[in-house]
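User: Show me sequence and structure for the first protein, then do the same for the second.

Assistant: Starting with the first protein.
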Amino acid sequence: MAGEGNNIDDLLLENRKFPPPADFQENALVAGTFLYDEARADDEGFWARQAAELLHWDTDWHTICEWKLPYAKWFVGGELNVSFNCLDRHVLAGRGDKVAIHWEGEPGDTRTITYAQLLDETKKFANVLKSLGVTKGDRVNIYLPMIPEAAVAMLATWGDGHFSARTIFGAAGLGLLIIGLFARFLARKLPEPVLS
């Protein structure tokens, strides 16, 4: 039979290497395997250090990882504002003019959005939600294609400077139930994911 040796197991045998170009290596933020080595030696300690150094926490966690197979809870007890960590902290640190999203559409149109611009748009949309009477505990359905406005809508529901709500790690910041419905769902199929 032709192609008999090309079963799925053969696809797992990959020995080629694709080294990055020299200019990419020179400008890399991380060179070498020291992060991998650290994570391998102490995985929980590694992720605790990453979370402490790279994220702003409103309330520190008391347990790094609670592992009860098949479930894992990371940074138990910790609270953070997802939107603040994605946007505000970069603007406050003077990086507002850095690119947050470089988007390219299907027909080749492009948009470049800085952290400051994304924060402004997120605040505007959060105020739209507020003006519509959206409050903590409300269900918010986001039905958009993969465009920058989808990120704006999700960041606005996760909390911004105009709302005092905080994000409990892994939950929505305004206390809203966020259901991301991407354009792959047909309109006639919407009630199923919205109601479940």
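Switching to the second protein now.
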Amino acid sequence: MAADGGAHGSRVRAGWWAPAAVLALTVVQLGVGTFASSLQQFEGKAFGARLVAYPVMMLVVPVAWWLAHRGRDVRVPWGAFALVMAPFLIDVTGNTLDLYDSVGWWDDANHFVNWALLCAGLGLLLLQGIRVRWARVLLVTGLGAVLAIGWELGEWYTFIRHGTELDTAYQDTLGDEALGTLGALVAGLALRRPRGADGG
């Protein structure tokens, strides 16, 4: 019994540091952006709202997974959690280093890469039991498209509608949604083959 308990504990703890580090680095930078909002790279970026919203969104998936698997002897998917959280860290770091304003392609690259990471993490959690390849790709891509739309709505409500980017918001929104969906498609293609099977 003691040996079984030790094995279970190692499965629970192994890899926890990756999502914990991502969360901690994100929160620290959010705090800096909130309390040093007069700096140019943080001005008008709603860092006060992000300080609350980002940690909550980063923890939604791990908490939901824990509630669904509570009491079960299963390996905790820390890697998937880290992938889901990583886009928030990348976004905040881009603002901290002023990359959104100083690097022309940074915003577009973010929407593509971050959605690939986010959807890869979600796919690792949601695709278990789905064996058909096209269904796996479609699920991840469709989920990414829905999340891209939701994200753009959140950005518009939080700071675009009263900000200086309103004139170009329509074109930017369409581009961001397309890039996010493309990133989700890449994640879906990467996860199209079920583990230990040829798929269908």
